[in-house]
């Protein structure tokens, strides 16, 4: 029998073909978990990740993480394959740079569909298949705790504020079933999604906000998620872990 801490566990990760999601899939598989790699459109990186991990421990599922029918199918395919879900990570997200004036109804709907509706209903559909001792790990942002946040993050941070409240109350709800709920709130992290549209000067400025003088890496965040996904975090519930190297404190 494997001595790896997550041996025998099944992890379902949305938005897992790139960035933080991909790093998390690799981290959890290195700890012994079987991983379901959800992606929305581009199969190539998802299949490459499955090949890297091994087809006996990973498989990819194309699904829109903000669509209820796709969410139901994603959960069903996971349970049909491996019987249960022990670690649920609704990682898929969109980052629309919109202030109040520039936000359209379509912008609002698209952001809330993926960043809020998707995680909410993924939890609803997955929980019946999650045994006691399971973990839900949601994704927020340290921008929710940053005084110098700029107006163009208004729509994005609004969606992540909903995630933080979801974390607090869902922990009370499914805690009765022996399931913990926490959220990781990364600081600026060098992912494709984060870097898109940002000048080198802006990226350097944002790195300077951190006492370490750098951006986070997807692996930094994945290791924090790995901790919350394991048995050593069993008494941590309803918390927001701001994984940002000290960019924000308190």
General shape: globular
> Cα distance, first to last residue?
41 Å
Strand content: 5-15%
Q: Helix content range of the residues, please?
A: 40-55%
Radius of gyration: 17 Å
Number of strands: 7
Which structural class do you get from the secondary structure elements? alpha/beta
Give a short account of the largest sheet: 7 strands, parallel
GO molecular function: oxidoreductase activity, acting on CH-OH group of donors
Domain Ketoreductase: 9-187
Family: Belongs to the short-chain dehydrogenases/reductases (SDR) family.
Pfam family, one: adh_short_C2
Question: How does this structure look, described?
Answer:
Helix 1 (19-30) packs across helix 8, helix 3 (68-82) packs parallel to helix 4 and helix 4 (105-126) packs parallel to helix 5. This protein is 42% helix and 12% strand. The longest helix has 22 residues, at 105-126. It has 250 residues and is α/β, with parallel strands linked by helices. The chain has one domain (10-187, 218-241): NAD(P)-binding Rossmann-like Domain (Rossmann fold, 3-Layer(aba) Sandwich). The protein has eight helices and seven strands; from the N terminus they run E-H-E-H-E-H-E-H-E-H-E-H-H-H-E. This is NAD(P)-binding protein. Keywords: NADP, Oxidoreductase. InterPro entries: KR_dom, NAD(P)-bd_dom_sf, Sc_DH/Rdtase_CS, SDR_fam.
